[in-house]
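for the writeup, i need someone to sanity check this before i put it in the appendix. the sequnce is what the collaborator sent (i think, or maybe the updated version? ugh). structure was predicted straight from it, no edits. if anything looks off just tell me and ill rerun, i have time this weekend
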Amino acid sequence: MGASSFHNKSKQQKTLMDNPAIYSDGLANSIQDSPLRTQQKMLGALKNMGGDATSAATQTVTTVTAVAAQILAANTSRKFLTLQNTGTQEVFVKFGSNPTVSPKSFAFILKPATAVNGGDGGVLSLQTYTGSVHAVTASGNSDVAITQFT
């Protein structure tokens, strides 16, 4: 392989890194994703699930406490939903009504992040669920990042 061939390959790799593209599987060829690039990848994945790539994303962060409450209202236009625990307490999730820790009445547990906003907390992604989402912690507070596409 000559120097010219090596130079062309390096130039092609740099172009790919500078201009990530959304592929049919919704993944971009990038090393580190910015929030915008993550949203673009999610829109690509949504399109592959039959959604519209021009769908609107609504992002919120809500604090879940030891008192069960609705964290997301029902939305008949919702196509995709993602919840991520960004706090340090387990979050118990239930659909349509308030969860309880004891007695056990919940659908999912989002594991806590190792540190506040650590990015490694539990994630729940749902396609086509349009009902309300409720959550509670066993004790203390924990933030949950919510993204829904309509």
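Confidence is low (pLDDT under 50) at residues 5-33. The first strand starts at residue 57 and ends at 64.
thx in advance!!
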